[in-house]
Design brief:
The structure is a single chain. The protein is an alpha/beta fold. The chain is 35% helix and 17% strand. The protein has helices spanning 2-27, 47-57, 70-86, 152-171, 191-197, 234-243, 270-275, 303-322, 324-328; strands spanning 89-90, 97-102, 112-121, 131-137, 142-144, 147-149, 178-183, 207-213, 223-227, 249-252, 280-284. Strands 1, 2, 3, 4, 7, 8, 9, 10 and 11 form a nine-stranded mixed β-sheet that branches. A two-stranded antiparallel ribbon has the order 5-6. Strand 9, helix 6 (234-243) and strand 10 (249-252) form a beta-alpha-beta unit. It starts with a helix and ends in an 18-residue tail after the last helix. It binds zinc ion. Zinc ion (ZN) binds next to helix 4.
Length: 346
């Protein structure tokens, strides 16, 4: 029965080839991944997937990710996939998504739906004790006058960094629970953050600190700001300690009333949590020529700085985790609600 032998020989041959491939895979030298533009060797985050996600989110195909558009839906799908690949668990009983109503911006517009994604990494006592809430918005300005606003720095950079930091903590569990929220509709009034802050399924009463990433991938000077220490002086010591050895230059500022328009206290999602009396650290770069311009493209990101910033924020989250009960004790009474809610029709 020669055909049987032929089959057997074939099987042995195939097995041998697979064994060879496995051997090559196992013993092939695995040097550090070479990424053009990045000389810094990351210690905490995996830069490849982070940069890839930032590039995908800021590609023309996603049409600027404006809330309530197909490009925004697609962006959310890519972020969710990346979260799932990292091993991070969905936080809400219903899964990853928290949907909320976006009221019409003008009398002739119709209402729509915004969607946040919320994952978490459990600490040593899951469901108990103080929590770190890490946020980054993924929406941007969309298309205006035929031009795509890709928002590579604002805030594809932060959304991708969010997943990279989540991946780090999934592999090295923290002391306290950490929530990772990719927020929608920041650009039209911090609406995703407001929805998160007022969702009864999100334990805001346990949140000790909001750490918010918004514009973290583009700095020619290599400088990353940690704003919010003015409001919670305890955090100034934490930041200055990290700054001594951080891979990106870490500065404080942009959080005092006398800074005027350069006071960033209420200028991104952390503002909502600040008004709720929660300490915050906002991580972001100085405004650059691409800010809210069609030129905010992936090609303009400073990738070496971006990877350094990601490792730096891992240090920040780790340090906050280390003294979280003390930070929790810095919570203040919430500010009175604004007289008119953003997004409410006239
Ligand atoms: Zn932004």
């Amino acid at each position: 029965m020669r055909w049987r032998h032929w089959k057997r020989d074939m099987a042995i041959g195939l097995f041998g080839m697979l064994a060879l491939m496995a051997g090559v895979w196992l013993f092939w030298p695995k040097g550090p991944e070479k990424i053009p533009g990045v000389t810094y060797q990351a210690q905490f985050v995996d830069p490849g997937p982070m940069l890839h996600l930032a590039e995908v989110l800021s590609s023309d195909a996603l049409q600027g990710r404006a809330a309530m558009t197909p490009g925004n839906d697609a962006a959310r799908g890519f972020i969710r996939k990346r979260f799932e690949d990292t091993g991070v668990e969905p936080f809400l009983p219903g899964g990853w998504e928290q949907s909320f109503t976006i009221l019409p911006r003008t009398p002739d517009a119709s209402a729509g739906t915004g969607v946040n994604l919320i994952g978490w990494v459990p600490g040593e006592t899951p469901g108990e004790g103080p929590v770190i809430l890490v946020t980054a918005h993924y929406d941007h300005l969309g298309v205006r006058d035929g031009e795509i606003y890709n928002g590579a720095d604002d805030n594809a950079s932060g959304a991708a960094m969010l997943t990279a930091v989540a991946e780090y903590f999934d592999g090295r569990p923290p002391n306290h629970d950490i929530l990772f929220a990719a927020l929608d509709a920041e650009e039209i009034g911090l609406l995703g953050a407001r929805a998160l802050a007022f969702d009864p399924e999100v334990p805001m009463d346990r949140v000790a600190i909001n750490i918010n990433f918004d514009m973290v991938g583009r700095s020619e000077s290599g400088e990353l700001y940690a704003a919010g220490t003015y409001h919670t002086p305890l955090l100034a010591d934490l930041v200055s300690e990290i700054a001594k050895t951080s891979p990106a230059t870490l500065l404080t500022g942009h959080d005092r009333p006398e800074d005027g328009v350069n006071d960033w206290t209420l200028q991104s999602d952390h503002g909502v949590f600040h008004q709720a009396g929660i300490p915050f650290l906002y991580l972001g770069v100085e405004d650059h020529p691409g800010y809210h311009q069609p030129t905010d493209d992936f090609e303009a990101l400073t990738l070496d700085f971006y990877v350094r910033a990601a490792d730096t924020v891992v240090n920040v989250v780790n340090a906050a985790d280390g003294i979280l009960p003390e930070i929790f004790a810095q919570r203040r009474a919430p500010a009175p609600p604004p007289s008119k809610t953003e997004g409410t029709p006239e």
